[in-house]
Amino acid sequence: MQTIERGKDGVYRWVYELNLYTNPTIFLLVSKIFLGIAVAINIFILLLDVIENGFRLELLEDLAFGFACFVVGMLLLTAVGYLVYAFIMGGKYCVLFEMDEQGVKHTQLPHQIKKAQAIGILALLAGASAGNLTTMGSGLLAASRSSTYSRFRDVKSIEVLRSRNVIKLNEPMNYNQVYAADEDFAFVLDFIQARVK
After folding, report:
1. Higher pLDDT, 46 or 130
2. 13 vs 7: CA distance, rounded Å
3. How far apart are CA 23 and CA 163, in angstroms?
4. pTM
C-alpha cells in the first residue's frame, strides 16, 4: 500500500530513513569518489615520470604496487570514517523528498543538518591544519549544503537499485539520490521515468 500523499499544492512529499549500517549506498558513493581520486593521482604521477624519464616497465610495476597499497589504505580509512559518521548520525540518514511535475528535491532533515554541519566544520578544520585543500573543500561543502534538487528535464540518466531502495538521477553537474520505501518504490520510479526524456 502506497504511503506517499499528494498535497493540495500538487507536491508529493515523503520522509525516508536510510539505515547507514545495513544500506551500503552512501559508503559505496564515498568509496567511488576516493577511488577516482586515487586513479587520477596515479595517472598524473605516471605521466610526470614518463615525461621525465621515458617509459619503463619497472615504472608500471612500481606504480601498480603503490596504487594497490594506496587503495587499500584509502578504503580502510573510508570505512573507519564512515562508521564514525554513521555513529554520529545515530545510524540513520533522514531525508524529506518533495516531488512535482518539474523535479524532485532531496532535503536532509534539520536535526541531521546540524550534525552534518558539525562534521563538515571538523573536516574543514582538519584540512586547514594539514594544509589539505581537498579536505577543506569537502568539509566546506558538507557544512553548507543541506538539499539537492534535480529538474527532470536536465536528468541525463537514471540508475535503479531496487534492492537498496535507491533511484539515482544523473545530471551533467548534479547528482541526486532518491530513496523510497518498498511500497512506494514503483510509484516514485514510474513518476520519474515518465518525466525524464
Report:
1. 46
2. 8
3. 9
4. 0.69
